[in-house]
Design goal:
Mean pLDDT: 96
CATH superfamily: TolB, C-terminal domain
Shape: globular
Strand order of the largest sheet: 1-26-25-24
Order of helices and strands: HHEEEEEEEEEEEEEEEEEEEEEEEEEE
Structural class: mainly beta
Number of domains: 1
Helix content: under 10%
Distance between the termini: 37 Å
Low-confidence stretches: none
CATH class: Mainly Beta
Amino acid sequence: MIIKNNKKPSHPAAIRLKDEKMDIIENSSKFEGYLKNNKFKILYDEMLWGEGPCYIPHRDMLVWSDNPNNRMLKLSDGKISEFRNPSNFCNGNTLDNEENLISCSHGGRCLYLTKDFVNSTILLDSYNGKKLNSPNDVVVKSDNTIWFTDPPYGIISDYEGYIGEQEYDGCYVFRFNSKSKKLDVMVKDLNRPNGIAFSSDEKKLYIADTGEGIKHLYVYELDKDDNLINKQLVYDFKPFFSDGFRSDIDGNIWTSAGKGIKCFDPNNNIIGQILLPEVVSNLEFGGKEGNILYVTATTSLYMLELNQIGAKFKK
């Protein structure tokens, strides 16, 4: 049974962008070839702000966050139910290389590790003895390092967390080695680092900055020591924003982009767009073949079958 506990108002981004018009993008033939059709199927529509979809292959299950409602949901065997309630305002979710769930908790100002999909432990909650802001999105590299963004969205109001103070001076992008417990600052100069994802070959890292008046998606190259170099602007999404994104098997980046999804090739050229009726937060490739695009968009979870697969799926 799913408890409908939408007692808060609509998400501020959904209200602010309600009447904004999307730009017109002519889809390339390459992008059109990825689409079996462009009609999304709606699977669920009782959220305030769906976020962080994460597909778990060995369980054929999708989990995601309904952050303002302080819960996580799951799609398994064609049925939707609550995965965790309360969730401590979890936001972004990903898998480690053993398919354990890692979640960004706004309420706990930490990363949770869930090994058995029942019990969670705190993986990390501080930097130099000071609380993290409110970890937002997370990705795990093939070498098992955990990369995450740490804006203050979970502590500036009680809408998606608990009001609190920033304890370190900034909003950083971190890299955490769970074996050595070493935490490195990888990026300091973004205003509100948000979504984060590697390219399919892990030679590049994409990071969104959703700071006031910014709304940019950037891409960095990784040097031999995994330092981030050669920062480039992929796209300016104003008045919308890039929130969450994934790479497909060919290195294209599919990203939330206001009331739709935009797709960029590895050279940062936009190759296509699909529109939705709500503001999109995030997306994930899933399904047994990796060709189902799951999309969280404000109140709803959507799905679209593709002729393309996600980067973590092998041809």
